[in-house]
Design goal:
- The protein has a four-stranded parallel β-sheet with strand order 4-3-5-6, sandwiched between helices. Strands 1-2 form a two-stranded antiparallel ribbon.
- The protein is built from 27 helices and six strands.
- With 592 residues, it is mostly helical.
- It is globular and about 90 Å long.
- Helix 18 (347-368) runs antiparallel to helix 20 and helix 20 (395-433) packs across helix 21 (441-447).
């Protein structure tokens, strides 16, 4: 097992390179920017439909109003994603542009939305009350048009890059105000992007008889069908857990490519449910509640196992510290505290538990009558509650939840016991070395941060070869007397992670530490990819371990803006979230 982990560790830079792919980042961050649409629209849908589950009949005007709000939010999801994806892709492209040449992200955003409409929407005329009306077919404006949104975004930004790099723009005299001049400079690239997508639309419609959005769905339908089989679901879940196990945020790599079909399937499930049928799609957006039950690795039950069945004081402490975050799908305290990442003892259960969960879910949907997931709930919803809601409050869903909790416990327990025995032996050895009795091992274990697999776990973070500049966390610590003089008064700190869950833990610790020490420090949490519009408002940005592989890209932006960038390693980050005063001390020590 150690040999396998060492082999994976050796190839970690390759996987980190995949996670930093600018296309995957743009898709992930663009979709994340539209999550308020998904969540807000789902609330109105729940208001319109759930009262009927308990026999309450709402006034029809209220139901119609809620459905309208849903249709005018979720129904234009594709258009919005085209814009946010283009905006994020533009930010990545600007880091690669020649000096002095910058793409206008506001213009690329609008151009991508127009281009997406050309690729996905059909316009036709119809008669209404004796008059001819021009009508848009809205079918592909929502989740069904996400592939068209991505293609439109990438084409748009590349056209802008081509034109701006070669000065193919309309230049006005220097006396013309900058905002007006910028509008004229964007005319050629804007027109070029729209024309190219318009030509693609004409060619596809004439050759295939369908809009571009439908063409992609038809071409990729065999792949989507395969993805919804048992092997397909297992492969998706195994890949997600595998990437996280080697220290690369798995959902950021795996999910962007399947999000369009997951959302489309969930929307189709909803339509079937509202029509009184049985939603049968298993590859849906909220299937992550099952495969990532408590977080990647299906770790929901693990903290409780650590508390109840482990003897190692280290694992018991990790269990107590992580039980609440893991309940809300924030399992980094467990991943880095145990650790589970790159821990040879944890490889098999970490990958297998989620795979078993999605297989049982598909069996329940196909054979037991459980509804496929229909309503969208936030990713941080406690998994048992989220599963119950999104299956339309079926009692069979609660039985399903109980079964997968039991199965996950069975899968994890023997591996945790083996790891626990190793830690107990090491704790006893440390106590003996210090001349203490064996029951003193608890004190030693509590005071040391070195787990049995620390050399491997520590290496999960990006190596020096993966960074142009050495991360702050790797630099020698300043002397204590010097750090005490560092002024943090008035400091504004932004902590970033993948979904603003892990980052909130450290941001809250900094707030608490500032209150304890009387420092005037403001801290906020955010998601990487959604930070570009606000990052210039902060003095310090901290990258959580799950997004530490983006250090180089982030460093280019922070250096340009004169912002301090910090990137603590996994165990160090988790320790800071538990030590508010220590978090303030750490900030002092790492300020120039």
């Amino acid at each position: 097992m150690d040999a396998i982990v060492k082999m994976l560790e050796k190839h970690q830079p390759f996987f980190e390179k995949i996670s930093r792919n600018i296309y995957l980042q743009a898709i992930k961050d663009g979709f994340l920017g539209c999550m308020p649409i998904v969540l807000t629209s789902s609330i109105f849908l729940l208001i319109a439909t759930l009262p009927g589950v308990v026999g309450i009949t709402l006034p029809q005007p209220l139901i119609d109003w809620c459905n309208k709000l849903y249709n005018f939010t979720m129904g234009v999801m594709g258009i919005m994603v085209a814009g946010t994806t283009a905006k994020n892709f533009t930010a990545s492209m600007n880091r690669r542009m020649p000096a002095g040449k910058v793409l206008n992200d506001g213009s690329t955003m609008v151009a991508a939305q127009c281009s997406m409409l050309l690729l996905a929407v059909t316009q036709f005329t119809t008669k209404f009350n004796g008059s001819e009306l021009s009508v848009f077919d809205c079918t592909s404006m929502g989740t069904r048009g996400l592939f068209s949104a991505y293609i439109a975004a990438f084409i748009t930004v590349w056209v802008y890059k081509f034109c701006v790099s070669r000065d193919l723009t309309i230049k006005l005299p220097k006396e013309v105000p900058g905002a007006i001049a910028q509008n004229f400079r964007d005319i050629i690239p804007f027109g070029g992007a729209v024309i190219i997508c318009g030509i693609i639309d004409v060619v596809v419609r004439n050759l295939m008889g369908v809009p571009f959005s439908e063409l992609l769905i038809k071409l990729l339908s065999p792949l989507f069908t395969a993805a919804e089989t048992y092997p397909g679901l297992i492969l998706i879940q195994a890949a997600t857990a595998f990437f996280w196990f080697i220290g690369v945020h798995g959902p950021s790599i795996v999910q962007p490519g399947i999000d369009p079909i997951r959302l489309a399937n969930q929307a189709e499930n909803l339509q079937v449910l509202l029509a009184g049928g049985h939603p049968a799609h298993s590859l849906t957006f909220n299937m992550s509640l099952v495969g990532e039950f408590g977080g990647t690795g299906a770790t929901f039950i693990v903290p409780l196992l650590l508390i109840l069945f482990m003897k190692s004081k280290q694992l018991k402490a990790v269990g107590k510290a992580s039980i609440v975050p893991v309940a809300f799908a924030v399992n980094e305290p467990l991943l880095f505290g145990a650790p589970m990442i790159l821990n040879p003892y944890m490889l098999i259960p970490f990958v297998a538990a989620g795979c078993v969960n999605v297989s049982v879910a598909k069996f329940f949907i196909d054979n037991v009558g459980m509804n496929g997931f229909s309503f969208v709930v936030p990713w941080a919803t406690p998994a048992p509650i989220g599963i119950f809601i999104t299956t339309n409050f079926q009692l069979i869903a609660l039985i399903f939840v109980a079964i997968i909790i039991l199965l996950d416990a069975i899968i994890y327990l023997p591996f945790l016991k083996a790891y626990d025995k190793l830690l107990c032996d090491q704790e006893a050895e440390r106590a003996a070395e210090l001349g203490l009795e064996s029951d003193g091992a608890a004190t030693i274990a509590a005071s040391t941060s070195a787990p049995a697999v620390e050399p491997t776990a520590a290496s999960v973070e990006p190596t020096a070869a993966a960074a142009d500049s050495k991360p702050v966390a790797d630099q020698p610590e300043p002397a204590a007397d010097a750090s005490a003089k560092k002024d943090v008064d008035g400091l504004k700190v932004l902590v970033l992670c993948a979904g603003a869950g892990t980052s909130a833990m450290l941001a809250n610790a900094i707030k608490e530490g500032a209150a304890q020490t009387g420092e005037n420090i403001a801290s906020s949490a955010g998601a990487y990819g959604q930070h570009t519009a606000i990052m210039d408002q902060y003095d310090v940005i901290v990258l959580a371990p799950q997004v530490r592989s983006y250090y180089n890209d982030m460093k280019a932006d922070t250096d340009r803006l004169g912002i301090k960038l910090l990137a603590p390693r996994g165990k160090e980050y988790i320790d800071l979230t538990r030590d508010p005063a220590g978090a303030i001390k750490w900030l002092r020590e790492n300020l120039d």
